[in-house]
């Protein structure tokens, strides 16, 4: 089953979208993220992707309380990340009702620790691989690592991570279409589940992802196109067959 997963990005308690991950390029869509979450579920979403942007930029969780409310009130399972660095951070979100936590910078900075975390949290742990020109971005995409995205994907699978979220940061928020080559490279390098993100703006983009024929490509995260009304969730869901 291929899922369409609406993104809910939190900044200063609001639902926003960034262009290419830049904090200064934020568009505010709602002062009530919980209502937004309920809307996507009402329109057919069976899973939600929530990001604590304040946490990502500051390197520590900031919006945990709000994420907990979304998880408890949205009516569908929620995965969430942003600024998670410790086991305590992870447990706080899971205990608050989040279905799955997403680590990004922590996976790059402490890859050996990921095996410990994967053993401890199993399928409730995912790793976000955010890449620009094939190189992993960290700290809310404001810094580049020296790690190739495909190499990190392989390393994370070996560590026991069962789900990877791959985002091409150059197309994120641009509605220019997904990086099909990048998605193919990641899916070909691993056998674990992969979720694609970045640039998706139309049902045709979803169909193109499906045409890749990657059995381990299990979903796509969509943000700005939904918020701007460029495409409806129903149209995207209809393209998953």
Structural account:
This protein is an alpha/beta fold and 241 residues long. The mean pLDDT is 91. Helices cover 38% and strands 30% of the residues. The protein has helices at 33-42, 53-58, 64-73, 87-95, 105-109, 111-121, 149-159, 180-189, 203-211, 224-227, 233-238; strands spanning 3-11, 14-19, 22-30, 48-52, 78-81, 100-103, 125-132, 135-138, 143-148, 163-168, 193-197, 217-222. The N and C termini lie close together (9 Å). It has an 8-stranded parallel beta barrel with strand order 1-4-5-6-7-10-11-12, surrounded by 7 helices.
Computed structural class: alpha/beta
Uncertain regions spanning at least 5 consecutive residues: none
- Oligomeric grouping of the chains: single chain
The residue-averaged pLDDT reads: 91
End-to-end distance, in Å? 9 Å
Order of helices and strands: EEEHEHHEHEHHEEEHEHEHEHH
Strand order of the largest sheet: 1-4-5-6-7-10-11-12
* Global shape: globular
Major beta sheet summary: 8 strands, parallel, barrel
What is the share of helical residues?
A: 25-40%
Whole-angstrom Rg: 16 Å
Fraction in beta strands: 25-35%
Number of helices: 11
Beta strands, count = 12
Please specify the SSE layout and strand pairing:
Blueprint: E1 3-11, E2 14-19, E3 22-30, H1 33-42, E4 48-52, H2 53-58, H3 64-73, E5 78-81, H4 87-95, E6 100-103, H5 105-109, H6 111-121, E7 125-132, E8 135-138, E9 143-148, H7 149-159, E10 163-168, H8 180-189, E11 193-197, H9 203-211, E12 217-222, H10 224-227, H11 233-238
Parallel strand pairs: 1-4, 1-12, 4-5, 5-6, 6-7, 7-10, 10-11, 11-12
Antiparallel strand pairs: 1-2, 2-3, 7-8, 8-9
Helix pairs in contact: 1-3, 6-7
